[in-house]
Amino acid sequence: MTRVLYGGKEETSEAWKRALLALRPGLDLVMPAENVPPESIDIILYEPSGPVKDMTVYRNIAAIQSLWAGVEALLDNDTLPKGPPLLRMVEDGLTEGMTDYITGHVLRAHLGVVRQQADQAREIWGSFNPPLSRDRHVGVIGLGALGQDAAKMLAKLRFRVSGWSRTQKDIADVRCLCGTDGFDRIIRENEIIVLLAPLTPETENLIDEKALNKMPHGVHIINAARGGLIDEDALLGALNSGRVATATLDVMRTEPLPDGHTLWKHPGVTITPHIASVTRPESAAKTVIEQIKRFETGKPFLHKVCREKGY
Ligand code: NAP
Hints:
The protein is α/β, with parallel strands linked by helices and 311 residues long. The chain folds into 2 domains: 3-91 and 279-297, Rossmann fold, CATH 3.40.50; 94-271, Rossmann fold, CATH 3.40.50.720. The protein has 10 helices and 12 strands. It has a 7-stranded parallel sheet with strand order 8-7-6-9-10-11-12. Helix 5 links the parallel strand 6 and strand 7 (160-165). Helix 3 packs across helix 5 (145-156). The protein binds NADP nicotinamide-adenine-dinucleotide phosphate. Residues 69-70, 90, 94, 98, 142-147, 164-167, 196-200, 202-203, 224-226, 250-251, 274, 276-277, 311 line the site of NADP nicotinamide-adenine-dinucleotide phosphate.
């Protein structure tokens, strides 16, 4: 029988246990504290903040299933075995939660909520009317599990949506771009830019001073991916010059954002504490059970990480 080690946070262990056993009663799910022989583990459910630190002892594992969508912390683990596949978390709850966050913050940028609130604070009866969403250009950087769903929902809300990815995509009602030219177009042609690409050596500082200078004046940026995608000093400069009207940042280079950091109090910045979306055991258990079934029936795993590309 397949033995699965839960290596997530203690506080979510009961929820995971409940959700997994509901789908697969009798699953051999073990906790690190149970001290079973490490070589008897087939699949590790891994979370960087969980208790599994040294993976070298799990000599027979068939796969490491990340409980997070982002895998850069997993790839940074020095004890990561070279052989077994690493699996990203893709699950409906995580995807839908992210789409809720993105659509909410795109609408907020579109409607000029930050500007209205600034007017209200100064008791100004302003006259700003946003364009219709059909006339608003939104660019989504990263068209993976999360970016695609968000882009599709934005298109349903009638925004003019473009998306950018490494490989060319074909998504109904979304103008799909890729490559260097595609990047240039997505940053030049959109008034609201959403970041949903992983942090890799290629995407680190993707949004730097040069990129910011190509964006339309008054652009809105929403980063729900990783803080390292943005050069924060360049962003602050662009916020101060008005090039960037607002930045909604769920992720920072240093988390939690340090006390006294300029971003905390900048009037154009909305900080959310890395809560854009989260893996939900009740929906994510389906993904885990599917991976276990694939292991047992010799089918290829889903959502494999490419170690070379870093996502
Ligand atoms: P994913 O399915 O792996 O998709 C990543 C997308 O980024 C793909 O479309 C990929 O292009 C594109 N991409 C990667 N490197 C690129 C490059 N150099 N140039 C152009 N495009 C590139 O990932 P996901 O599940 O959608 O998640 C995206 C990220 O969201 C995660 O890595 C994580 O950092 C972040 N996240 C944040 C939260 C939060 O709460 N803030 C929650 C979950 C996830 P291809 O399709 O061509 O490969």
